[in-house]
Amino acid sequence: MTGFRLSKGGLIDRSKPLNFTFDGTAYSGFQGDTLASALIASGTHLMGRSFKYHRPRGAITAGAAEPNALVELRSGGRKEANTRATMIELYEGLEAKSQNRWPSLRFDIGAVNSLASAMFVAGFYYKTFMWPKSFWEKIYEPLIRKAAGLGTASKEADPDRFEKAYAHCDVLVIGSGPTGLMAALTAARGGADVVLADEGSALGGSLLFDNEEIDGKSGIDWARGVIAELASLKNVTLMPRTTVFGWYDDNVFGAVERVSDHLATPNPYEPQQRYWRIIAKKAVLAAGAEERPIVFGGNDTPGVMTASAMRHYSNRYAAAAGQSVAVFTSTDSGYRTARDLAAHGVFVSAVVDTRAEAKVEGKRLPVLRGRQVAQVKGGKAVSAIELTDHTVISCDAVAMSGGWSPIVNLMCHRGARPVWNDSISGFVPPDVGGAFVAAGSAKGSFLLSDCLREGAAAGTLKGKAPAVPKCRDEAAGVAPFWWVKDFRGKAFVDYQNDVTVKDLPLAAREGYNHIELAKRYTTTGMATDQGKLGNVNAIAILAEATGKTIPEIGTTTFRPFYTPVSFGALAGHSVGHHFQPVRKTPLHEWAEEEGAVFVETGLWMRSSWFPKAGEDWLASASREVLATRNGVGLCDVSTLGKIDIQGPDAGAFLDRLYCNTFSTLAVGKARYGLMLREDGIVFDDGTTSRLAEDHFIMTTTTANAARVMSHIEFCHQALWPDLDVTYASVTEQWAQMAIAGPKSRDTLNRIVDGAALTDENTPYLAARSLTILGGMQARLFRISFSGEHAYELAVPADYGSQVARSLMRAGRDFGIVPYGVEALSMMRVEKGHVAGGELNGTTTAADLGLGKMMSTKKDYIGRMMASREGLTDANRQCVVGIRPVDKGDRLRAGSHLLKRGDTPSMANDQGYISSVAWSPMCGMWLGLALFANGRARIGEVVKVFDGLRNITMDAEICDPVHFDKENRRLNV
Amino acid sequence: MLITCPHCGTRPVEEFTFLGDAKPQRPTSNDPSTMEQWFDYVYLRDNPRGVIDEYAHHSGGCRTWLVVTRNTETHEITGTVLASDYAAKRNEAPKKGARK
Questions:
Q1: How far is CA B69 from CA A216, A248, B52, in A?
Q2: N or C: which end of chain B has fewer CB within 10 A?
Q3: Contact indicator for A275, A162 with CB cutoff of 8 Å
Q4: Which of A168, A247, A250, A855 to mutate to test the interface with B (most CBs of B within 10 A)?
Q5: Three-class SS of residue A97?
Q6: Using one digit for the tens of pLDDT, what is the confidence trace for A800-851?
Q7: B87 to chain A: nearest residue by CA?
Q8: What is the ipTM of this complex?
Q9: Which chain A residues contact residue B18 at CB under 8 A?
């Protein structure tokens, strides 16, 4: 046994024992423990295996920076990989597994990598997996993928909920140690709205584990008093278990509150985690400092940890890391740990201080000054340390302290770099202005009195900072020390990625001497801990290797997130059905009654086909087409964008938006319009009608409805604000349905009020207001996408389904059918009408065969750029029809077109099939294609090449209008 | 990032859609000789380090197009005006010059 539970002390609740399992073995701990502290108290330091060499590893910290003790927590859909045992609060029934080992944590086959470590040096992957090239896809990549990562993700859905929340405050205090508490208290007493956030399970920061004296009380008692006062104030929000992970523009902070991570399952109506956006007028970084490890042989052996972590375990959790502890230090922190352990009755076998002289009190401690530890003896546990002078001192745990790194991360998230400070041998935060200030040890001030004073100053918004309570200052001397030159064994700089002290000089020798390059070459500072412990040592070692100073080397870039944030928290509610809103048309209810199968198009649910018993989509859609072309059909077209445009300049405005002219359109008429982008490519099309001299109603394609609206807003406001015109989207206000087929007018006549529809009062392209069904306001447009004698009827949205039902009754005698977008698509391909496949962001008006629509008498969006040489080239691919030579062949959209006899290649490519549909009228598959110089090549037989299905066939290029070329049916 | 919309007040950046540099001005002539101006307007954009005027559409709010003055180095926003006011002022400017 290397560890044990101290008989008294600590902040654990000994009246509440908790049972848990680790790798299936039953353990127990107490309320207030972390998984790591409970394991250490049970004598278990071995918690994981390292990434590359599969070295046995234990917790090296007691907090968020932990690189080693990563475990898989929970199981099933709740399983979470790479969780830090040092941050997991113990709960009854907790279930954790170690990672990256096989078959077991104690005996791990992967550890043979360690024997071959001469091979696994920096850049190993880059050097090894270069050749032979053919090995990459089949052998190397699968191998690397198998080895990569530590834990495995669950493949089941997470049953718990995550939510997002917003907070606004005058002062956000990050960290609740002495500095943070003082800042929050000062700001709160001054009347400011304060949010105090701390990543720990309890507020108090270092006061939870360091023995201090403030205001005549113990540090923890003082903290409890301050927390109680803060909790009583209405203007203070206390947020324990909340990690502020990022600083963004305008003092916006991201934070994750671990609402239920300390429970087996969340309480009813509580989320697992809450993702916060905190907007702070001022923020105070009081995140403290991270103690650095020293680089020496075997510094990764389970049982070796930072001095402050060892103090943390003994003072807060009453868990001793060992029965006989050696301390290796270049700072006064090591002495503090030795003293605290001795006070707990733990035997301190040596305090090895790299410094020949130190002012710190070492009385009654076995201090060895000016000495260094060469290596830790033992494999899965510590048995002794060996000094560089070969002195061997037996021990079962080692505390190390190489200095302190202020936790500067958040202050560097917006690009500022931390500044090297020689007097503390660490990087301190940059000055980023008054809205975000650092205080206390986060700023490099390690004396308690300085922390309190700086905290009070940071929390003062107006006037002079208040006086702070008296306290006892502990010695905080530091002498820079990075690595033991005469180390023996393996000395780790970055634990998580198994970067050793040899890797960095190697990277420098191979030319990767810039810190950003060395990081990527050696992987130091990567993965879940992002080098929180190892980076400064790495920078110092690289500086030595390159003959530069530490500030010359500088740091890598600090980016959010400070610690890993779960996907669940980022997604929040936006999962499953809630991923995006669902838009249902006003005719949705009617379509459901008719048995529609719906298809998602963007956010919309559109009726796709209306199958009868036994029909598949093709049979259903074919029947719908035949019934429509022979009688009458009803189709929901409500998803088309509808924009109401009014004002004296409405016509002039439309002239600038469309390439064709609308100011000349007669009142009561509809016209097909084509809109270009400013670069001359077609943007959108649709029918726009003039309802009055100064009133138009525009329709857009379903896909572009929102984009066209934004475009209209831009063109008016940013280009031509002098035009007197207003516009509003009315897509949701109107239900719109197409009534198509030779019996469409007869059907409508049964529901319109007053005079029956005739060719005289409602000719082709008429657009008029009327009433139906005894007084309901409606708009009727005689337009046709199907090529039939057809109308589009618009009624107020809430009446949509009711009107559709009335039309179905009115058309019953004529065999009316509902038809969906599949039938619509078949009919438009038969008629050669272009749609999304052709309006694909690469085609010009001329490519679509609509070049004649482009007015030469006015300026409009896209006019000039459409006249460019490249957009008017005769060899451009333009829209043509295509039909298989063998009527039984099925064309496939996306197939490429080649000259007969040519082999498939980019050079030989002549175009491709953009749309395909079965034609019930022609009894074969028909298509539209974009084909080089197509209109001049009508009648040519080409080779169709479908590389996906490996099919080739012959097909004939033809006019895009496959059916009723003379448009006779429009007036049947 | 927060943007102050003249209509809606201070709102988070997610409510806005950016369109980029507002400086290029749409040419008014369709004469073929002006093709170069058109090309510049459609394709050429500066990428300044420092202050830039950018179009932003309050697409998740009042749907007004704005011109936001932003510092590309610091992301500091120093001004927000309606795109219509920006355009009206700019369209007026050459006329004033002509008078002189």
A1: 54, 18, 6
A2: C
A3: yes
A4: A250
A5: strand
A6: 999 999 999 999 999 999 999 999 999 999 999 999 999 999 999 999 999 9
A7: A718
A8: 0.95
A9: none
